[in-house]
User: Which sequence fits this backbone?
């Protein structure tokens, strides 16, 4: 189903997230974040908003867009950064120094760990928390944790350098336990580190309670400047409270799988985590077999998806345990050449990441179900409405006809077929008018109908003029329509009905009644005008069929006219006989294409050689020069 930007804008969620703009070649040309995806993405396509030339150029290249829903603006900011670094979109500002958001690191590789700000997350034994978009809050929080839990900030190698230097000023100010001189045991020191770790994992209550006591006490003493400092510190801690599910601090490569399952339809959402960062996501539609639950559906998806993907991560986080988990792990491990696990997290950051993937799957499924409903109302639903309006039962196939010519030259007819409100292009047919002279649309229409239904009757084995032939189900002529739709009104309908009576066929014919401005105001059916609401789905279906019939007839006439012109000109080229004319007409659709072709292109056409190609080239190019010289001399 083609991506309809206007329709997709209506389905955008009013949630924070990231949007990715794609061009016609499926390249990501822009990544952005939004507090409200619906408002932000729609603003790009609003005509009333003034924009610069760069943004206008970007909008003109958008072919489709996708969104990733997250839980907070902070997560959207981090995910936007990750995706920009991964895809380097053309219209995003690129950070030349590869700047990243900071982490808070516990240097657990050391005997007496420190709390430091880290710009990058390394693959080591240290423990990382974040990333945090608010760098100032991170630095203030690190200073607060050091002071609260007496954590050192020096870079001395302990215990190797213990006792070799005097303690620093922080020890005198009671901000550090001074493990550098052995003033605190490792057990006591690690108690403070454990409390700091609990804080960084999300247990803010003890620290916030302590700060609130300090703030209230200062306020009671009317030391308001000090109270403001404590208040600002509380605000900065709250800024760190939002968990970052879009970045995983252990730095592993993993995929996150979640399902949204409703009846016989399902959507699988896959988040791709590489080096601990979410670099993208995809979703897949699944047709669910009757009776299958999440374990069976997930198992089938894993088999099919990872059977063809070139990269296998070390770990798959799944929303539920697949029905044959052990066998899948064995298959994937053998294919990847290393141990691969499928895990079902029950709590913590990984479980929250699963919930984020599931929410995106639900969002996509809801979008698609809504789109399917609208498409059904636009097509099969509209055809049912048309049948009800005309009092017909079992309306499945509609055929429409049109005639195209220019003053009777190269008259052609077109047959367009719609089934259940959708075009059935394999059944479209073209007719060159053979027996009608001049611009007589009624007679031409009668010829097209006779030829169409004669073919159909013959292929059904009902016409025996040339002997009995077997039915050919693959032919579009075998199936007869439940309704014939004419572009004209009463006149065309009567002509069509006369042809059908002549051939002893009882097929209803409906025409379009036009107003003074040539707009359809109703339908002519069974000798009466049937009013139709111009805002109804049935009216829009009739209009689509009408436009498609015109388009098909006009394109055929234009193509035929161009071939006739090519044919007439080729007749004048010496040495170009019927066989070469035929091949040149197949290779070049019009005079302009033939005139602009080089000798090499002409020689590449079947049955042509170098000498014949030079003759054709000289014919066209010499002719143009003579015309230019004549015009110039006059």
Assistant:
């Amino acid at each position: 189903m083609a991506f309809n930007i206007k329709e997709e804008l209506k389905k955008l969620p009013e949630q924070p997230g990231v949007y990715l703009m794609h061009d016609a070649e499926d390249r990501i040309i822009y990544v952005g974040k939004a507090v409200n995806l619906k408002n932000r993405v729609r603003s790009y396509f609003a005509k009333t908003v003034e924009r610069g030339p760069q943004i206008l150029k970007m909008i003109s290249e958008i072919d489709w867009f996708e969104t990733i829903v997250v839980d907070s603006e902070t997560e959207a900011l981090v995910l936007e950064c990750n995706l920009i670094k991964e895809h380097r979109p053309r219209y995003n500002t690129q950070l030349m120094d590869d700047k990243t958001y900071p982490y808070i690191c516990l240097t657990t590789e050391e005997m007496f760990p420190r709390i430091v700000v880290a710009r990058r997350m390394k693959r080591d034994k240290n423990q990382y928390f974040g990333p945090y978009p608010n760098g100032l809050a991170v630095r203030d929080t690190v200073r607060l944790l050091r002071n609260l839990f007496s954590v050192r900030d020096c870079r001395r190698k302990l215990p190797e350098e213990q006792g070799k230097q005097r303690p620093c000023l922080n020890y005198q100010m009671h901000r550090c336990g001074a493990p550098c001189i052995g003033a605190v045991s490792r057990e006591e020191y690690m108690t403070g580190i454990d409390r700091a770790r609990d804080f960084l994992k999300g247990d803010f209550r003890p620290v916030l309670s302590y700060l609130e006591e300090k703030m209230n006490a200062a306020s009671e003493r009317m030391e308001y400047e000090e109270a403001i400092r404590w208040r600002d510190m509380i605000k900065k801690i709250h800024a760190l409270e939002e968990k970052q599910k879009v970045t995983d601090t252990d730095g592993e490569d993993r995929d996150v799988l979640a399902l949204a399952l409703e009846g016989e339809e399902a959507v699988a959402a896959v988040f791709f985590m590489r080096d601990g960062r979410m670099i993208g996501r995809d979703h897949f539609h699944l047709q669910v077999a009757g009776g299958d639950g999440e374990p069976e559906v997930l198992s089938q998806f894993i088999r099919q998806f990872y059977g063809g993907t070139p990269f296998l991560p070390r770990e798959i986080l799944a929303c539920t345990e697949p029905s044959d988990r052990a066998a899948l792990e064995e298959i994937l491990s053998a294919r990847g050449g290393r141990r691969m696990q499928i895990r079902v997290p029950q709590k913590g950051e990984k479980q929250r990441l699963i919930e984020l993937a599931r929410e995106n799957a639900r969002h996509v499924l809801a979008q698609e179900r809504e789109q399917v409903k609208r498409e059904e109302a636009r097509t099969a639903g509209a055809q049912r409405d048309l049948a009800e309006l005309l009092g017909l039962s079992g309306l499945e196939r509609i055929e429409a006809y049109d005639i195209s010519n220019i003053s009777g030259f190269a008259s052609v007819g077109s047959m367009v077929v719609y089934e259940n409100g959708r075009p059935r292009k394999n059944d479209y047919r073209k007719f060159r008018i053979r027996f009608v002279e001049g611009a007589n649309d009624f007679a031409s229409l009668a010829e097209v109908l006779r030829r169409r239904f004669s073919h159909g009757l013959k292929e059904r084995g009902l016409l025996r003029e040339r002997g009995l032939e077997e039915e050919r189900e693959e032919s579009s002529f075998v199936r007869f329509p439940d309704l014939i739709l004419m572009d004209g009104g009463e006149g065309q309908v009567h002509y069509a009905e006369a042809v059908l009576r002549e051939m002893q066929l009882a097929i209803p014919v409906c025409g379009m009644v036009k107003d003074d401005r040539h707009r359809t105001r109703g339908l002519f059916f069974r000798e009466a005008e049937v009013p139709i609401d111009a805002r109804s789905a049935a009216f829009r279906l009739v209009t689509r069929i009408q436009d498609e019939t015109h388009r098909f007839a006009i394109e055929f006439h234009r193509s035929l006219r161009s071939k006739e012109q090519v044919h007439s000109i080729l007749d004048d080229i010496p040495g170009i006989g019927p066989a070469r004319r035929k091949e040149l007409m197949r290779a070049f659709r019009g005079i302009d294409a033939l005139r602009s072709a080089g000798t090499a292109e002409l020689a590449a056409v079947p049955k042509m050689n170098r000498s014949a190609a030079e003759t054709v080239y000289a014919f066209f190019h010499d002719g143009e020069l003579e015309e230019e010289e004549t015009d110039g001399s006059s």
